[in-house]
Amino acid sequence: MFGLGKKRSKLGKFIDKYGISQEWVAKKSGLGRNTIGRLVGGDPQHAPTATTIKKIMKAIREIKPDAKVDDFFDL
Asked: What is the pTM of this model?
């Protein structure tokens, strides 16, 4: 199981629940692995840009078409 004992963001909890790897999200979104790692790790200092959110949501909607930005990011 993924994410055991780690602090996770809403996005991190989602990918853990669906068994998605950070690498898959990185490839599908076109973002770097470090960026994805910061987003799923629950780093409160990291605020993603609108472009980054758009790319993440495009990848997430391949798994869950009705996903909303508010489900993953506090804006």
From this structure: 0.85
Long-range pairs, 37-44, Cβ under 8 A, ≥24: 39/9, 39/11, 39/12, 40/8, 40/9, 40/11, 40/12, 40/15, 41/6, 41/7, 41/8, 41/9, 41/12, 42/7, 42/8, 42/9, 42/12, 43/9
Structure tokens at 61: 């909607």
**Topology of domain 10-71, CATH:** 434 Repressor (Amino-terminal Domain) (1.10.260)
Sequential pLDDT tens for the chain (75 residues): 555 667 889 999 999 999 999 999 999 999 999 999 999 987 778 889 999 999 999 999 999 999 999 999 987
